[in-house]
């Protein structure tokens, strides 16, 4: 599976962005898809994930502001980010794991996209 993330950019605090992650391959619907982020000088951290059956989970820091969704017909997963804060500034990565289930750790994912930069100005 190859993943291509897009949609990052510069936004003011309180604004919104939607990230997309397009996947290659014919079995996209069988993958759990995750979003992670990495701020400068920090470790990569879990943001959100969606399983093959549509179950979702979020980091506490983004709960209520971010929404993860998927369109299996387009082999794409989305991360809608609302009420953005300067502390959301990071490179955002999408990731995929073949077996269904909820996964939170970077080591549990098999495939990674290249990352897209989100910068939130105050």
Word description of this protein:
The protein is an all-beta fold and 122 residues long. The protein contains no helices and 11 strands. It has strands at residues 3-6, 9-12, 17-23, 32-38, 45-50, 56-58, 66-71, 76-81, 90-97, 111-112, 116-121. It starts with a strand and ends with a strand. The mean pLDDT is 96.
Describe, in short, the structure shown.
The protein has 122 residues and is an all-beta fold. The chain is built from no helices and 11 strands.
Could you state the order of secondary-structure elements as H and E?
EEEEEEEEEEE
Shape: globular
Distance between the termini: 37 Å
**In this structure, how is the largest beta sheet organized?**
7 strands, mixed
**Mean pLDDT reading:** 96
Helix content: under 10%
